[in-house]
Structures are given as C-alpha cells and as structure tokens.
Amino acid sequence: MDPTVLEGLKDNIFADAWPAIEDPQKFPWHTNSHNKIDTWQINSSQALAIDVFGSLKMARSNNQILNALAQSIGLSKWVDDKCTKVFERI
C-alpha cells in the first residue's frame, strides 16, 4: 500500500477505532472504479462505519453500550454472540 494512502486512511478514521482494523495491508478496503482505495476521502461511508463499529469494538464497555442502545429501542438485551459476529467483520 502506498504510504500516502495509508496516512490518508489514518487521518480519516478515528484514532480510537484504528486498532480495530488490525492489519491495514490485509483489510478489505473499498476501492473506486479504478481499483484505488478511496476510504481516505472525507465522505467515505466505509470510514464512517469503521469509526462507529471500530470505536465500539475497541471500547472496554462495548457490551454495556450496546445493551443500553438495545434497551433504548425496545430490545431486551444485546446478545454477546451477535456483538462478536458484528465485530468479526470489521
């Protein structure tokens, strides 16, 4: 990966969410029609998803956060298994 692209990715993703990526060289980055990574762009939906779900994945209290969210929308509880499966995709 081009170092400039890697730096752009780091600049466009929350620092607390970045560790959720684990290996940026192997991560399935979104690409444009020219097969160039475009997640570094300010309007990247992939970067937004990583910001949200990566931050949740890395949060020490992610189950409590997700349980509170579930409760606020009328669900009884967020199930650990589902949480793990969501985070495996990040």
Summarize this structure briefly:
With 90 residues, the chain is mostly helical. The protein has one domain (3-88).
Explain what the structure shows:
The protein has 90 residues and is mainly α. The protein has one domain (3-88). The protein is built from 4 helices and no strands. It has helices at 3-12, 45-58, 62-72, 80-88. The longest helix is centred in the middle third of the chain and has 14 residues, at 45-58. The model has no long low-confidence stretch (mean pLDDT 88).
Mean pLDDT: 88
Q: Which regions are unreliable across 5 or more consecutive residues at pLDDT < 50?
A: none
Helix-strand pattern: HHHH
How many E strands? Answer: 0
Total helical segments: 4
Tell me the radius of gyration: 15 Å
- Structural category: mainly alpha
> Overall 3D geometry?
elongated
**Major sheet:** none
What is the count of distinct domains?
1
The end-to-end span amounts to 19 Å
Approximately how much beta-strand content do the residues carry? under 5%
Question: Helicity range of the residues?
Answer: 40-55%
Sum up the structure in keywords.
49% helix, mainly alpha, elongated, 90 residues, 4 helices
What are the SSEs and their pairings?
Elements: H1 3-12, H2 45-58, H3 62-72, H4 80-88
